[in-house]
Each structure stands twice: as C-alpha cells, then as structure tokens.
Amino acid sequence: MAEERRFRSASGAPIALRRRQHSASCRELAVRGPRLQLRSLSAATSAVWLAAYGLFALSENSMVLSAAIFITLIGLIIYLHFVKIDQESLLVIGSLGIQVTSSYASGKESTTFIEMGQVKDVVINEAIHMQKVIYYLCILLQDPDDPQGVSEVVPLFQSSKPRLDCLIEVYKSCQEILGQRKTAPQSS
Amino acid sequence: MVLKVFFPSCCSSADSGILIGRWISEQNSAVILAVVHFPFIPVQVKQYLGEVQRVTKVSVSVLGSWSNSKQEKEESLSEFLEDLGTIFCHEPWIQISKEGDSKFWSCSTLQKHSKNPQEEEIILVYYDQHKVMLSHLHPPLDTAGQRAEDASKLSAIFDTVARSRVLFMTDRYDEGPIKLTHWQSDGVEASIIVELMKQASVPACMLLTFLLSLLSGICRSRVLKFWPLSFLWSKLSTCEQLGHRLQHLQIISSNKKAQNQNQLMRKANIFVSLLIDVALGILLMSWLYRKNRIGHLADTLIPVADHVAEELQDLLQWLMGAPAGLKMNRALDQVLGRFFLYHIHLWISYIHLLSPFIEMILWYVGLSACLGLTVALCILSDIIALLTFHIYCFYVYGARLYCLKIYGLSSLWRLFRGKKWNVLRQRVDSCSYDLDQLFIGTLLFTILLFLLPTTALYYLVFTLLRLLVVIVQGLIHLLVDMIDSLPLYSLILRLCRSYRLAAGVKFRVLEQQDGKPLRLLMQINPLSYGGVVQTYRLPTYSCYPRDSWASLCKKLFLGELIYPWKHKGEKQN
C-alpha cells in the first residue's frame, strides 16, 4: 500500500513523501523534490545567449555564438545528469539491509546498499549550517572493533533536506523495522 | 527469524526436482545453486554432492524441493516431495512451488526439530548466476584484511557461487545419472579465440623471457657502467622510461600463473597499456616520417636555438643597462653581463658546429618512437633539457653567487651585532671580537649589502627562466606518468562488462501479492570509474614534487638549487 503526503524542505520548497509497505519487514520511503521549472531553464538560456550576442556585437567573431550554444548544451547535460536530484529513496529490508537511492533528472540512479550487520541505528541529528540549525536523518554504522563505537555517519536526503515533521515520519517507519531485529530470536 | 532464499533466475522455468545449494546458518539464508531433476537415485545424488564438496570445499547439500506444475496442482506430487524431506534430511526443508505461468510462487518450510513453531517470514531473492559467478566484490578501501570475514554477508554468497564452478560444468547433453539445471545447462560456453590465445601464449612467453634476459644481460655489462656513461644514463629520462617498460615486460612474460584477482588485473593492465602505447608510438612515427616532416623539424631546430640565444642576449643587454628603472652597480653589472654573454657566444658556436649532423641524428632518434608514445615524449623532454642547457648553467651560476652572498651577509650581520654561530652547540652565541675584526667585518658587510640588488636581480631572472623550463618538462612527465599508470584494461572491463567489477549489490522490489513471500531482484552495483582507477592504478617510478610549497619558497629565497621533480630511488641530497 502506498500513501503520499506533502511537506516542506528546509529552504521552503514543496516536497512529497511517499511510503510503501511491501511486506511486514520491507518498507520503501521516497522523498520527491520539485521538478526542473521551464521558466528558470528559459531564463538561464536567454541570459547566456544575450551575453554571447553582446560579445559577438563587440568582437564580430561568429565563433562566440557557436561556443555559447555548445556551452549551454553541455552545461544543461551536466546539470541534469550530475546535479539535479529528483527523488531520494530509502528501502529498508529487515534482516538484509538498508538501500539508499538517488535518482537524477536524466534518469541516472546511484545506489548504495548497507548491510544490516553494519547498521547500528538510524537517528535524527542537528547541524549548524551558516546561520541556521537544520535537522537531518542519518545512519550510524557499527565499528567492528568497538561494540559501542560508531565508525561512520551516513547522512540521508541531503539534496531535498526535509524538515523535522517529515523526518519524524521516516524515523518512525525505520525504527519499527529496526526494532524487529532486536526482538527476533538470534539463531545459533 | 526471517529466512532468505537466493534463487537463480535461470532456474525459474526448470522442471520439478530437488534444490541443491549451500545453507548459511549464521545468516539464516539458503543459496540455491542448481535443480536436480527426476528420476534420480538418492544414493547417487549424495555421492555426487560429496564429490563436489571435496573438490570445491563448499558445503553443498540438498536444501529442498521445487515443483513446477504446468497444469493443476497435483496432490500426490506434493506428498512425494514432502517424503523426500525425510530421505535428504535437512533442517529446514524448503518447498517452493510454481503454478502455471504465475509470477507469484508459494514458499514454505518444514521444521521437524524447531524450537519455535511460529511461521517465519520468507524473502525470495532472485540473482543472475552467470554474473554473480564472474563478479569480483571490492570492499570499501578502509576495511582491513582481518575484518573481511565478518564484514560482508554478501561476500559469502558471491564466494559460494564463484567457487562452485565445477558444478556448472555438466550440461544436459552429458550422459550421467544426475540431470541438473543451472545457467550453463543448455551447453557449456567457451571461446575458441581465448583457447587459441592460451595455447599460443606459452611459447610466446618463453621467447620473450629469453630475449629479455639477453637484453638485461647487455644492460648490466661492465662496459656501460663507466663513470661518464653511467652519469648520462641516470640523467636522461628516456633511459628511466625504457627501464620501467623492461620491468613491465618481465612481469608479463613470467610463467607463474597469477595468484589472485589483483595480480591478474595488473598483468592484463600492463599488457593493454603496452599495446596501446606501442600502437600510438607507431602512429606518431608514421605521421612524422610522412612528407619528411622530421626533416622540416630538424631544419627549424637550429633557427629556434639561435632565436632563443638572441633573446637571451637582448635580455642581458637590458639587465646591463637600467632594468625596470632600477639603478645597478655598474662594475658588477658589466662583469656579470659580459661573463654570461661570452657563454652564449660559446653555446651558439657549438650549435653551429653540430648543425650538419642534426638531421641525421634526429632521423635515427625518431625511429625509437616505435617503442612507445611514452618513449617519444621522454625523448622530447630530453631534447628540451639539452637545448636549454645554457639556461640551466646560468641558473646554477646565479644561484651559487646569490647563495654565497646570502650566507656571507647573514654571518657578517651576526658579527655586526656581536654574535657568532656556534657549530658545536648549533646555536647563536655572543662573542667579543677584536677591533680589526669588527672593522673588516663591517666593511665587507656594507660592500655585500650594496651589491645585493644586482646579484639578486640576475638570480631572479635566471630562476624564472629555469622554472619555466622545469614546468614544461614537468608537464611532459605528468603526461608520461598518466599513460604509464592508467589501468586501461580495467576501464574497458568496467565499460563493457560492468558486472565483473562490483562495489556492492542493489535490490529491486518486484510485484508483490498478499500471502506470498516478498520478491526481490538482486543486481550488481558496479564500481565507479574513479574507484576503478584508484584500485587498479599501476605504480610509477616518479614521485611528485617532493618539497612542499613552503620549503620550495625557502630554498628559492636562500639560493639553494631546486630539483622539483625527483625519481624514486635517487639519493636524497
């Protein structure tokens, strides 16, 4: 079953959280950010071409115009493929692990899978960013040498930056599944 | 506890039978390797599994039953399959059944001696057997060796499939008592080209080893070790590069088989890198010798050298006048200027002496570009070094003079203040000087101080020229290093067969149906290109600027000679 709710990100942009429960121990939580707007794209393209036309009028060299077109195309491709993240999702499979996926606007998906044995806990942390205090959700990885220690902190939802209310929903869903591994009897 | 069943996607359409694989009890997961079909004799199956276990050291056993009924579910078959559970006793006995063409299978376990009778959840994970078998898992770089056993549960699964290669060698055309279904059961795959290359490589390696031993014998002979020649070899970067390539050839032509994945990839990388290098070198050579471009190059070399010398003469005339409006000490200025002008005059005479032979020398030296593009670039760097040898000489003279002056000034400054450098204690101590010592010292100090701007200016100008040449040579060496150390075979493998270099796995949730187990698809997450380059980089012989910026500036200020690009193995001075 799937449900979708609207929230706001730390900078005020509207985001949507979609929760799906695939089975008793498997949940998927996806945060979708705002899509690329046509007006910001047209504004950027027009600005670049106006500047190029101005340079052409000054220097009478037509290479400037072709260079501007080339730069715009390459810049757009790089932005869509490497920078603009459309959706960030978290797939929690009890007893297997946690999978973090970022989908870019060009369709590329970059995935990381963390095994359950390495996950110590999922917590909400505070961070001071410039003049603001923001909350972020992160996965704490177990240090193999020290049972109480934390070897690494993996922050989640870094590009959509949801606010605390959205993070609490995600946190509760994750903890339900993580709590199951403590209550399940260990096999010898 | 949740039971995880790893099922190969190639067995989805197999006929009914029993499942064989490995049971990993610590993780409560079953890795299914193949399906054994009816009819079979249980004793023969157990014998076969025992043999496989002995060869592969993987504890393969019968894990459960698989029923693929094209028509309605048969009751008698399900009872028969349950009875099989008593023959091949395995705890827990997994029963998977597929009806018709349905995607949703039903999966159940039979536990006879279970402590907790509750129904446990089952997760069905599909995996591509061929890809998982060939894949090599790369753990993150910060895990140490001893943590590898308990770190990754997934590596146990990859390991199991990879080591069971012998199980996949029998296909359905073999006449044997056991009929299996796995990824190769439709026919064992092999490539004629690979087999031919394997056969041809043995005599080729032996020939190469013989030639290399001859070559290294010649290189090590006493004739080449006499002082002027050995000094020359150590200074020319072409010889370093040739020695490096010789080492690479020795690695490839050794007859020891590669022990593990890393060594195999290293050999393959060196081989492909050498091949591409030689191909690019031959391309360059054919371009140079077509339309006699090398003749044109030789013709322009002398005028370029003359032009550089003329520019230097103009520069010195400018320094001897009033450079940038600064007032120099006339006498010292004239002495230094005339000294350097005479050097340039000598240099131009030598170049003109050599000019009839330049074309022939260049023609023969250009032939050595067929040894590789890196060798051609090193030759270019050496030619630049030889042509700008006079700039190097001027830099050394200017630096030594400036260095002497700075040390003299600092020592006399201490005398001026009544202090002395204590060599024994390595510190500055106060000292009472005689009057005549003080008088001479102060006089010398004043002379050196007022002559400082002239020497400093000459030093500055020649150091800048030298740094320019060093930067150009450094860029060429950077390019050579990049070509040397780039793991081309690994990059091509990542491009074409990305499942062979795995950074991890990724799971995709397939369509679900209530009441049926959770269905996941396990795919291989390939290593990023940056990760590939970092893991499989070939080691090179040079180390990058060994001085930090701070120590470089300090050396420049004091007038010590700088050699920013150093090779490993050279003595540190």
TrEMBL record, chain A:
Domain of life assignment: Eukaryota
Annotated Phosphatidylinositol N-acetylglucosaminyltransferase subunit H conserved domain ranges read 89-158
Q: Which UniProt keywords apply?
A: Membrane, Transferase, Transmembrane, Transmembrane helix
Q: In which pathway does it act?
A: Glycolipid biosynthesis; glycosylphosphatidylinositol-anchor biosynthesis
Q: Name one GO biological process term.
A: GPI anchor biosynthetic process
Please give the Pfam families that the UniProt record associates with this protein: PIG-H
Gene Ontology terms, MF aspect: transferase activity
Q: Which InterPro entries match?
A: PIG-H, PIGH-H_dom
Annotated TM spans: 41-58, 64-83
Q: Where is the signal peptide?
A: none
Q: Kindly list the GO CC terms recorded for this protein.
A: glycosylphosphatidylinositol-N-acetylglucosaminyltransferase (GPI-GnT) complex
Similarity comment text for this entry: Belongs to the PIGH family.
PANTHER family (alphabetical)? PHOSPHATIDYLINOSITOL N-ACETYLGLUCOSAMINYLTRANSFERASE SUBUNIT H (PTHR15231)
Kindly provide the name given to this protein in its UniProt entry. Answer: PIGH acetylglucosaminyltransferase
Give the source species. Chaetorhynchus papuensis (pygmy drongo)
The root-end lineage is: Eukaryota, Metazoa, Chordata, Craniata, Vertebrata
From TrEMBL, chain B:
* One Pfam family recorded for the sequence: Gpi1
Mention one GO biological process in which this protein takes part, according to its record.
GPI anchor biosynthetic process
What's an example of a GO molecular-function annotation for this chain?
Answer: transferase activity
Keyword terms of this UniProt record? Membrane, Transferase, Transmembrane, Transmembrane helix
Is Repressor among the key words of this record?
no
Q: Name one GO cellular component term.
A: endoplasmic reticulum
Membrane-spanning segments: 200-219, 270-289, 335-354, 361-388, 394-416, 437-461, 467-492
Which PANTHER family has this protein been placed in?
PHOSPHATIDYLINOSITOL N-ACETYLGLUCOSAMINYLTRANSFERASE SUBUNIT Q, PHOSPHATIDYLINOSITOL N-ACETYLGLUCOSAMINYLTRANSFERASE SUBUNIT Q-RELATED
Name the record gives this protein: PIGQ acetylglucosaminyltransferase
Species: Chaetorhynchus papuensis
Source taxonomy: Eukaryota, Metazoa, Chordata, Craniata, Vertebrata
